[in-house]
Design goal:
It is a single chain. The protein is of the alpha/beta class and 425 residues long. The chain has three domains: 60 residues, Nucleic acid-binding proteins (OB fold (Dihydrolipoamide Acetyltransferase, E2P), Beta Barrel); 197 residues, Vaccinia Virus protein VP39 (Rossmann fold, 3-Layer(aba) Sandwich), CATH 3.40.50.150; 129 residues, OB fold (Dihydrolipoamide Acetyltransferase, E2P). The chain contains ten helices and 22 strands. The strands form four sheets. The protein has an eight-stranded mixed β-sheet with strand order 7-21-22-20-19-16-17-18, with helices on both faces. It holds the Pfam family tRNA_U5-meth_tr. This is TRAM domain-containing protein.
Length: 425
């Protein structure tokens, strides 16, 4: 089918129309291109399609740097020039604002994190007859492909793939499948290994030797497919991450912003969203505080009441804040089941909301009708952002003062946004 691509969809696929006007979702096609596409199965209101040939290429089409592009499920737009990607991601934030009831707000193009800067990786592992396969999931598949290079993750994470492959081949605890989640901390790589069989004493010895040989201070382990709290299988030294100069001890697999550059950009946008004038000892509220990525920058501006639902993260934040003498009160609270109510928000100069991917619909509705003068919403999901903005658009007096797009997921379809909502004209 010969079609012209009209736009790029939320997943990074080109969108065209078939003869009946229904959408065709075509991976690796770009806006303005005339392409040959092979229609496939139903997908939503349209159909998935495969790209057979590009007849008229876009001037923004570039050669993807990675030989795995197209096979790997991680990157969606390596074939698109960076300025075009930055503009598209900013447009996605602007569109979310419009759908949320705040149209016509300009968003500057998102500045991407540089290549090889991602400090988190979750590798899938399979034992096959010809050896161990370790890498990211293949595009559209639950199965991994054998990873050789990556232009997204930090080279120190990629350097672990080869040694992991060798070690896992001799690990009886890996029968058929597992995974390895690695955070690159200030203390070095922090590995959380999940296998489909329990560790034997010999396995633990091998893991300790592997950690020593590869500069890994801690290896945690849990059973694949369970929600068991990971146990420490090997530890040779302290584990810590520095967040705005404060040493924090994360739990295995703890959430960190994907790149240091992305973390810095988000923190800067949050601080820029605070009121220019605040009382002498302002009270700031932070919801979904995590380990303190934004808590400690906020503490330089006022007293922070930080709320976090994950017990390990809340405990790590509380301990780190106490040791650093930061003006932070860390409270463990399941904000999905127990959002903050209007009386608890009284007296706050500003509130920072950084929810998980699903957003914070109930909390947003409460904030919109509260007396909080300013809400800074940090979002990693434009769809959830649009939904959560609706109560603010319907309530009197709210406006979007600023919106910043942050691209720390290089070549993916993901984009972060920092949106400052304020009351008044």
């Amino acid at each position: 089918m010969r079609v012209t691509v009209e736009a790029i969809g939320a997943a990074g696929d080109g969108i065209a129309r078939d003869e009946a006007g229904h959408p065709l979702f075509i991976p690796f096609a770009l806006p303005g291109e005339t392409v040959q596409a092979e229609p496939g199965p139903v997908r939503g209101e349209g159909r998935a399609a495969s790209l057979a040939a590009v007849e008229t290429p876009s001037p923004d089409r570039v050669e993807p740097p990675c030989p795995h592009f197209g096979t790997c499920g991680g990157c969606a737009v390596q074939h698109w020039a960076p300025p075009a990607v930055a503009a598209w991601k900013a447009a996605r934030v602007s569109e979310a604002l419009s759908r949320g009831g705040f149209p016509g707000i300009a968003v500057e193009p998102a500045v991407p994190s540089p290549p090889n800067s991602r400090r988190r990786a979750d590798f899938a592992i399979r034992r096959r007859q010809d050896g161990i396969v370790i890498g990211f999931h293949a595009r559209g598949s639950a199965e991994p492909f054998d990873m050789a290079v990556c232009f997204v993750i930090d080279p120190r994470l990629l350097a672990l793939v080869g040694p992991l492959r060798v070690m896992l081949a001799r690990l009886p605890a890996l029968k058929r499948s597992g995974s390895a989640m690695v955070n690159l901390l200030d203390s070095g790589p922090d590995l959380w290994l999940r296998t489909d069989a329990p560790l034997t004493p010999t396995d633990r010895t091998r893991l300790a030797a592997f950690a020593a040989e590869n500069g890994i201070p801690r290896i945690a382990w849990s059973r694949e497919g369970t929600r068991d709290t990971p146990e420490i299988a090997a530890q040779s030294g302290p584990v810590q991450a520095s967040l705005s100069g404060v040493a924090v001890v994360p739990a295995p697999g703890a959430f960190l912003q994907a790149t240091p550059q992305g973390e810095a950009a988000i923190a800067a946008a949050v601080l820029a969203g605070l009121p220019r004038r605040m009382p002498g000892k302002p009270r700031l509220i932070e919801l979904h505080a995590g380990l303190g990525t934004l808590t400690f920058p906020l503490a330089s501006k006022g007293r922070v009441d930080a709320f976090e639902g994950a017990p390990e993260a809340a405990a790590a934040l509380h301990t780190a804040a106490g040791r650093a003498g930061a003006k932070v009160k860390a409270t463990r609270r399941d904000l999905a089941r127990q959002p903050l109510l209007p009386p608890e928000l009284n007296g706050a100069a500003a509130l920072v909301l950084d929810p998980p991917f699903s957003g914070a619909a109930e909390q947003a509705a409460i904030l919109a009708r509260s007396t909080v003068p300013r809400v800074i919403y940090v979002s990693c999901n434009p769809a959830a952002l649009a939904r959560d903005l609706v109560p603010f658009a319907r309530a009197p007096g709210w406006r979007v003062e600023s919106a910043v797009a942050v691209d720390q997921f290089l070549w993916s379809a993901q984009v972060e946004a920092v949106v400052t909502l304020a009351r008044g004209p």
